[in-house]
Structures are given as C-alpha cells and as structure tokens.
Design brief:
single chain; about 290 residues; alpha/beta; Rossmann fold; Isopropylmalate Dehydrogenase; 2 domains; 8 helices
Length: about 290
Amino acid sequence: MFAQLLDTTKKARSLIKGKKPSIGIGLADSSIAKAMSSELAQKLGDLGFTVALYHDQSIAPQPTGQEGLLWHPSRDPVQELISDFKDGKLQAIIRGQISSSTFLAELKRQFSLDRTYRLALLATSAGKEFFFAPVGIDEGSDPQDKQTLIELAAGLLERLAITPSFFLLSAGRLDDMYRGEQIARSIKETLDVVERCKARHPSMSIQHGEILIENAFDKGANTILAPDGISGNLIYRTLLHLGGGHSHGAYYLGSQFTGPVMDTSRVGSIEEYVGAVVLALRLIVSRG
C-alpha cells in the first residue's frame, strides 16, 4: 500500500500546479535532519518540493546536503508552523517532534476546532499494511463519533484511489454479551454503527469483527477500527513499541484544512517522518 502511494506520488508530482509545494515539519533535534534528507532523496530522488524544518532558535542548523530541506528558526515554532499553513505559506504540515498536546491545542485554537479525527497508516512486523483508528485517547468515544470517523476515513481512502473495507472491533464475541454490561454495550454499539453506516452507504464494505483483530486481513479489511480511543492507542503502541511494527504517520481528517495535516510520534523513526511526507505529498497531488 505504501509502495503504491510512493510510486503514484513519484509519477504524479508533475501534475502539481503552480510553484512546488512546501511541507513544514516540527523539529526538536537537528541530528535527524541529515538522515531524513538522505531517506527522502533515496525514496523520491530529486525532491521537487520544499521541506521546511521549524525549530526553536536554540537549535543550531546542520548541513544536510539537500537543497530542498530548509531550516526555519522561530521563537514559537509550533504557533508559526500552524499559522504559516493556515496562511497558505505551507501546503502541508507534519507534527514531527512537537509535543502532541501542544500541537493539538494550537491546531484547535487556530482553526477553532472542538474535535479532531486521525487515521494512521501502519504496518505489521511482516510488512502487512493497513489503516487504523482511533489512535487518540479522546477519539471514537461514542457511536456517532465513530460513524463520523468512518465516513471521513472513507473519503480519504477514495482520494487515494483505495477502496475502503472496514473491520470494526468491539469488546467481545457476540456470545460474550452476558459477561458484563460494558462488554455488552460495546458489542451493541458497534453493531449499531455497522448498520447505520450500511444504511447511509449501501455500497460500503464494513463488518463487525467482534474482538478478533487477528481475522481482519483474512476478511479482506484494509481499515481496522478499535472499540474506542484508549484501546486504539494501546493497540498502536503495542504494535510499534513491542511488536516490531511500523507507522507511516497519521492524517488529520476533515475539510476544515486547506491541505494535509499529518501526525507523527515524537520518538518516531526516520521512516515514519518520511512516510508522513510521502502521504502528505500524495494528498497534495490528489488536489491537483
């Protein structure tokens, strides 16, 4: 999936209209810049776009050997990164090494947001890729919230020329309903979300996977939804930090942004940052 996005991005960059796009990334450690530059050049060749590294003035820029990688010192890199994106100076932004709470608070403030939704592109240790949500502990908290997340995710995948196939997890198997009120409620709510989505979008591929996350790929799913944001965050962390999995970043869903807003872990690998750049660029290309 990521290889397909990368290949499509490389072939379609010439379709971007006007000046070459600029992508801003929050940076807290200058030592990763050279490694990121090398990885980008290896995957994309001649960048054909600009990556602006927003960082505190206390960080000393280091040579990267890549013309398209620019240093952007600032007294308030978080505020300036987001405001430059809002003003159109940047066509996409990536959280990078900025604190999640700091980035999210500033994003909500500048765009007057009450809620946000993210969809992550992950890979197992064996290289099997899939989309995953919710990844934030306060996301997907109720059936309506989850339905909104599914509909936004479906729109994103369609822009990427990927047919979405959703696999919704709940707190147990169907015959586990008697094992506690919380388990029963989770199963009933998940079944309700599936039915509502099917009623609104009859052609949508969506199924209740119970608690059997291990069946998702055999059932043909490419997008897995956890029962709620807390369990989703735990699944995400377990896969990446204990299970040898990988992340290509997470996309902030919604039409309120003029371009892609990407989320990455502060302790993410170079591959995660590069993956977020590739996905952001692919979405810029899709806008034409």
